[in-house]
Structures are given as C-alpha cells and as structure tokens.
Amino acid sequence: MTESVNLISPRGYCAGVDRAIETVERLLRERGAPVYVRGEIVHNQYVVKTLAAKGAVFVETPEEAPEGSVIVLSAHGSAPDVYERCAARDLEVIDATCPLVSKVHAEVRRYAGKGATVLLVGHAEHDEVIGTRGEAPERVIVVEDVAQAETVQVPDPDNVALTTQTTLSLDDTAEIIAVLNRRFPALQSPASSDICYATQNRQDAVKAAVEATAAELVLVVGSQNSSNSQRLVEVARAGGAESHLIDGVADLDPSWLDDHPRVALTAGASAPEVLVRGVLDYLETRGYSRKGNEVPTDEGVVFALPPQVR
Fold this sequence. Notes:
Elements: E1 4-7, H1 15-31, E2 35-38, H2 45-54, E3 56-59, E4 70-73, H3 80-88, E5 92-95, H4 99-113, E6 117-121, H5 127-133, E7 140-143, H6 146-151, E8 160-164, H7 170-183, H8 197-213, E9 217-221, H9 227-238, E10 242-246, E11 262-267, H10 273-285, E12 289-292
Parallel strand pairs: 1-11, 1-12, 2-3, 2-4, 4-5, 6-7, 6-8, 9-10, 9-11
C-alpha cells in the first residue's frame, strides 16, 4: 500500500492564540525588551522559548515584575485578584485574554451577581479554569467528570447556572451537562455555547479525517499542557486510530510508523505551523506522500489586538 500523510485542516493557531502572540511580539518591537508575561502566553513550549529568546520574561506572579513595568496577561484569562496585584505594583497591564474566555468570565460574574451557584465544567488545575473560578470563588464549583456531576451539591437547586472551559468540546461536556440538567431542572445556561469554535472545528476535522481516510495513526503537534491538543488525541483514539501528542519532530518515535501506511497530521490551537512542517518533512523522507490541505485554517476569525498595541 502507498504510504501517505493527510494534512488535516483546520489545524494550528486559533484567533485567540494569534492575538496573544502578536501582542507580545508587537510590544517587543515597539517598546523593546524586556516585556514581562504572566504565565505561559499560550500553552506551547516552542512559542514560549521563541518569545523568551526575543526578550519576553515569563513570570508566575505580578510581584516578579519590576514596579511600573509592562506585564502581559496570558490568553487563558486571569482572576480579578491578579489585576489588583498588578495595580498595587503600578504595572501597565496588557490583557491578552482570549475574547471567548472573557465571555465566560462575564457569564460567571452575571450569574454570581444574581446569587446563583455556578457549575463550571472543566479541569480544575487548568489555567483557564483557575482564572474563571477566581471571578467568584465562593460561588463557583468546578465539575470535572460525570461522577462529580452526579454528586455535586448546591445551596439552592433553583438558583444554579452552567459554564464550561472553552477548550473542551461538545462531546467532552455532553454527558456531564446531561447529568447536571437532569439533577437541576432549573439550571441556567448561556445563550450560546462556551466551547471555543477552534476547539470544536479541530476535533470535528480529526473525526472526519479518521473516518474518510481510514488513518491508522494520527500525530497531533502540541505541548503536553495544552488541553485542546490532548483532546485531539482522545478524539483520534475514540475513532479507532493510534494517536500521539508531540511537541515536534524530535518527539516522533519512528516505530510508530511501522505497519501504518496511512497517517494523518494535525496541530492543537496553540501550535505553530512550522512545527507541523518539520514533522511533514520527516515523513516525506520516510516515503510518505502528502495529501490533504496545505492551508492550516481558513476559519476567517480575527480578534482585535489590545488597544495599547493596535
């Protein structure tokens, strides 16, 4: 059988990631190094190392940035106390929070302001969930799985609301939400899904590729701490394919290719296309012919940069 690698599209950068990275790069160009960034600007090791080489300084807390300096808050969103701590140090805050994450923060504030208990479906230790929960920590309960959905208790079952981590998917959350709706008939939900368009589109594309091309191996380019990249691996495996998450070609184990003439290649929403090309080049040296879509994405979504860097 002829060996081939199918380039899945959409893949790679979403609009929120593109916005966050461009924000840091533009600050470095216009104001010069150092530019302080709280947390990883996006969850990708290559991106973080590349920006660090240009003069970005990644810090865990606002207190690590010198008083009066510029600090960029990451795409994953930050809790209100982070903004307060920045203000206390007279830091100029450049907010690179993804607008879709900001939408969830606003929902939490709105529901909590009405006295509701907010059930936040997501991974408790993920940066996005930590920031979202910080909007109303006394009113937000994180629900990670179906078991927790079956047992979570709220003070007033008639005043309870639902939000979700943006980097999950409709499939990830459907069963959990079904349980919560059954247990809490009065559950309030946002008018539109919190799930990120890019997360859903990339998962749908992996599903379709596995079905259409009968891919036996799906390689996902992305870092281990990238939630949306991890979900792509899970989707591929659920479709019956072997799948691995790799930061780049150096992580690719050649033995994975044994007896796998049909390979599909994609990337999480925070992974740059240059890393995909590195994997693709290697596969071509192994005799795989390239198929699929050379264009990473044509989703047409663009978010305006923060006002300080427009």
